[in-house]
Amino acid sequence: MEMTLCHQWRSFCFPNLSNVCNNNCPNNTSHCFGFLKAKKRRRCTSELDKKSSPFSAVYVESSAGVGGETAAAVVERRKSRRYQVSEGHPSPLGATPRDGGVNFAIYSSNAVSATLCLIALSDLPEEKVTEEISLDPFTNRSGDVWHVFLKGDFKDMLYGYKFDGKFSPEEGHYFDSSRILLDPYGKAVVSRGEFGVLGNEDSCWPQMACMIPNFEDEFDWEGDLPLKYSQRDLIIYEMHVRGFTQHESSKTQFPGTYLGAVEKLDHLKELGVNCIELMPCHEFNELEYYSYNSVLGNYKVNFWGYSTVNYFSPMTRYASAGIRNCGRDAVNEFKLLVREAHKRGIEVLMDVVFNHTAEGNEKGLILSFRGVDNSIYYMLAPKGEFYNYSGCGNTFNCNHPVVRQFILDCLRYWVTEMHVDGFRFDLASIMTRGSSLWDSANVFGNSLEDDLLTTGIPLDSPPLIDMISNDPILSGVKLIAEAWDTGGLYQVGSFPHWTIWSEWNGKYRDIVRQFIKGTNGFSGAFAECLCGSPNLYQEGGRKPWNSINFVCAHDGFTLADLVTYNNKHNSANGEDNNDGENHNHSWNCGQEGEFASISVKKLRKRQMRNFFLCLMVSQGVPMMYMGDEYGHTKGGNNNTYCHDNDINYFWWDKKDESSSDFFRFCHLMTNFRHECESLGLYDFPTAERLQWHGQAPGRPDWSETSRFVAFTLIDSVKGEIYVAFNAYHFPVTIALPERPGYRWEPLVDTSKPAPFDFLSSNLPERDTAIKQYSHFLDSNLYPMLSYSSVILTLTPAVIA
């Protein structure tokens, strides 16, 4: 076939072919033409300046053309002075070192063009692109994946993408070719290097870019292997990485960082914790809420981090290294935290936020997912509006085939590459909702009659949960659901589980709070909580360890504030006390606030011990919140999301002050739980092991006005233990069960001051303290003060 060059339009033109190109080339005898092999996908190379164009028109080969004729395909290839460029591979997604170079692959089904942006670390603060590689839609696209392979020197080089296509919010598209976007699969995000510090020109959102991995990115795991604890043996500690060591009293070398947390891991081991649940450590922007707070005279930030920018990248500003080495050192610091935790026998769980991202609603930012393929990644209404089941402006489209594969890939990465031991899923009920345009053909590849469902409807067998539950890697790690969302879906006890998912048991929290503070009508429900909530989990085939029991967590009152305030005191947030939960089931013990009488303060300490004892003797998995072990207060603020200050910091000096008081009690109670075989049962206790009691043995009182619950539990290590809770406002004398040949001895009595609240074996005055009750114990009785709880153990009777 004859081929000529149309000089006016700088195009290859082919005579005698018509209706091929839509560009209406003015050459009377030809039309602009190009297509790749036998695909018949056409493209015009018009308006390319041979002198200044970054492209070269390359003759590829003959291929079948229109009407069976053959023609040469013309392919535009991006010239690069720095790199050798070739087609690349569509998998795996992300940037992957291979064959002496790096393969870049990213999914975008609705974009019409894609450009790989390479950015030198020195150019990033100026928001300059060092080099652009335009991707050919014929050679650099397979299906809906854009890809390219580069060879060259990537030292101190970062990357991002530009996509072009429709900017049509009403159709769900937000393509903007001027935006440099983060790769959803980027392994480290580089921007600002220091937490809370503004970018150039005081920008809260300076340009971000992704680290380019290389073959030298290795970490010495020193033989680290998963601990693989049985979940029923866990004691979980919810921890904020920065808040754990940022306070000056931590005296760590690198406060507020992964390395700082490593320096304090021995504290957790001493406490008896064998699992930490890290509040969000995925890349987020703490300056997202940056605004002046006139109440405190400082600036509000996103301290908690529940607003993800990138799911594969650890939070770089939690690393002492910051963005050094293009973020690689931050990745290694996170790995170091995991490795050192494992050395101390502590598993590491991650709190992950797959319910929404930092991009917000239609008025929000274009950072990554929105600019890459908005209609795929977010749950949209027919006219492009964002569903808001998260309460944060958008909802991640979790059960879309592409998105659920993304989530699966991300979770696998954190397990296999970062060695984490499991995940807590924030607002996990969103992951059970149907995706946009939900139908079985979209999900399973075949349609069913009348299968069209409303977007966001809860699914009985959500594909994402199914995939995670049956994945050979993920099915073997801890999976914990916060089984509700802000759209009104509450699934505690009914979250789709495949028998392996656990739940934050919010019902446990509410019931225990109400019973301990002396509310009528909760004795029976409280007993269910002590047994691992069989009313919630037994019928569905789950076990006590599927219940994550907690009294306090990051959102809500701390343990000390739970017994100090009746009402929230959130004025420090600058929202006129309108934010935060109003129904806290708290009790101030008689006076509001920290300034109270001695008797009120004593009662508060007693109540704190009651709550912690309850947590440790309940079947299921106990979880405590950072700082509760020494009685941290937030001044009654139950929504401290925005404070990078002492409100959210762990006060190590206060912990040391209370080492002979509440911390000692917590430490001894966790050790007691570890020692008792019966306090972490695989299955729900039956009458063969557990017996209920009232103030008289064997006569429990489940009436509406009852505030007393007691039980005995057979234990293969301790023999038998007796546990009682008196939530009345008056003292009671209880009759203990008869055990011929044995005598009951007090081990724990929360009404006693330290160190007599826990009569440990090494306590010098232990025998003297027990003798004080001999006249009661000789009669098989024990006195309990109001609002107190006790643990007694059996010891062989001494015959006089």
UniProtKB/TrEMBL annotation:
Gene Ontology molecular-function annotations: isoamylase activity
EC number in record: 3.2.1.68
Keyword Transit peptide listed: yes
Keywords (A to Z) from UniProt: Chloroplast, Hydrolase, Plastid, Transit peptide
Catalytic activity of the protein: Hydrolysis of (1->6)-alpha-D-glucosidic branch linkages in glycogen, amylopectin and their beta-limit dextrins
Gene3D superfamilies: Glycosidases, Golgi alpha-mannosidase II, Immunoglobulins
Domain Glycosyl hydrolase family 13 catalytic: 238-673
GO biological process, one term: carbohydrate metabolic process
One Gene Ontology CC term in the entry: chloroplast
Cellular location(s): Plastid, Chloroplast
Domain of life: Eukaryota
SUPFAM superfamilies linked: (Trans)glycosidases (SSF51445), E set domains (SSF81296), Glycosyl hydrolase domain (SSF51011)
Pfam family, one: Alpha-amylase
Enzyme class, UniProt record, top EC level: hydrolase
Family designation: Belongs to the glycosyl hydrolase 13 family.
Protein name: isoamylase
Lineage: Eukaryota, Viridiplantae, Streptophyta, Embryophyta, Tracheophyta
